[in-house]
Amino acid sequence: MDLNISGRTALVFGGSKGMGYAAARQLAREGVNVVIAARTEAVLQSAARALTDETGCAVRYVVADITKPTGRDAALSACPAPDILVNNADGYPPGDFRDWTDAVWHEALDMMMVGPIEMIRRVVDGMQERRFGRIINIVSRSVKAPHAELGLSNGARSGLVGFVAGLARQTVRHNVTINNVLPGAFDTDAQARHIAKLSALTGKPAVEVRREKEGHNPAGRFGRPEEIGALIAYLASDLTGYVTGQSWLMDGGEYPGTY
C-alpha cells in the first residue's frame, strides 16, 4: 500500500525508544523526513543513527522536553513546519491517588495533556494553510478502561482526548486530521517499569506479574511496538483525510466492550 507521504516531514516526540521509535521507523521507511525528539541526547543519537542505517533516510534528532516551553521551542526550531506531528510522552507508574500531591498532578498534566496541546496549537495553523496535516497522539487504553492505580494517566490523558474531540471537527475541512491511538500493554521499556512497580506493590516477582498480564490478554501476549508504528503511519498517510477525532484502540482484544 502506498501511503503517499514520501517527502513529507514528521516530528516525533518520544522517538528514541518504544512506540515513538517504532512510529519514527515506519514513517522513515515510507520516505518521510523524520525528526525525533526526546530528553536524553545519547539515546537520541543512537536511535537516529540506527534508524538512518536501517531505512536509508537521514533521521535527525533534537533534545526536547515536551513538558517545557523551551523544549517545545527547541523541537520547532529543528522541525519548523511539520506535516506530521506525533505527540508521545512517558506516563506515570502505578500508585495510590492519596500519595499524589498538587505538584505531581501538575507534572502529569504538563506531560500528558498540556504539552501535547501546546504542540498542536503551535503547528495546526501552518498545517491548515498548507492544506495537509496529520496529528497523532499516543495516549493509553486507560482512557477507555481505567485502572485506579493509573489515575494520573486516566485523568490527564482523558483531558487530551476530550480536547481533541472538539478541535478535530474544525480542522478536517482543511485536510488536517487529529486522532489518538490507545495502546494496551506493549513490550517496551515503559511496560517493564510498570511491571516492576506492580511487583513492588504486590510483592510478586516481576516475571510472574508479566506472565499474569500476558495470560489475561486474549492475544496471550503483549503488543509489539512495530504494530502500533504501522497504525500511526497509516493515520499519518494521505489516505486518512476522512478520519478525524477518533481514538484507535490496540490492546489485543482486552477491552471487553462492543463499542
Distance between the termini: 28 Å
Write the CATH architecture name of the largest domain: 3-Layer(aba) Sandwich
The percent of residues in helical segments reads: 40-55%
Name of the CATH homologous superfamily of the largest domain:
NAD(P)-binding Rossmann-like Domain
Question: What is the succession of H and E elements?
Answer: EHEHEHEHEHEHHHE
Structural category: alpha/beta
Query: CATH class of the largest domain, anyone?
Result: Alpha Beta
Low-confidence stretches: none
Q: Write down how many β-strands occur, each being a DSSP E stretch of 2 or more residues.
A: 7
The tally of domains stands at 2
Helix segment tally: 8
Reported for the largest beta sheet, the result is: 7 strands, parallel
> For the CA atoms, what is the radius of gyration?
18 Å
Describe, in short, the structure shown.
With 259 residues, this protein is of the alpha/beta class.
Can you describe what's shown?
This protein is α/β, with parallel strands linked by helices. The protein has two domains: 9-184 and 225-246, 3-Layer(aba) Sandwich (Rossmann fold), CATH 3.40.50; 187-222. The chain has eight helices and seven strands; from the N terminus they run E-H-E-H-E-H-E-H-E-H-E-H-H-H-E. The chain has helices at residues 18-29, 41-55, 69-78, 102-130, 151-171, 189-202, 206-216, 225-235, and strands at residues 9-13, 33-38, 60-63, 84-87, 133-138, 176-183, 247-250. The protein has a seven-stranded parallel beta sheet, sandwiched between helices. Helix 1 (18-29) crosses helix 8 and helix 4 runs parallel beside helix 5. The longest helix is centred in the middle third of the chain and has 29 residues, at 102-130. The model has no long low-confidence stretch (mean pLDDT 94).
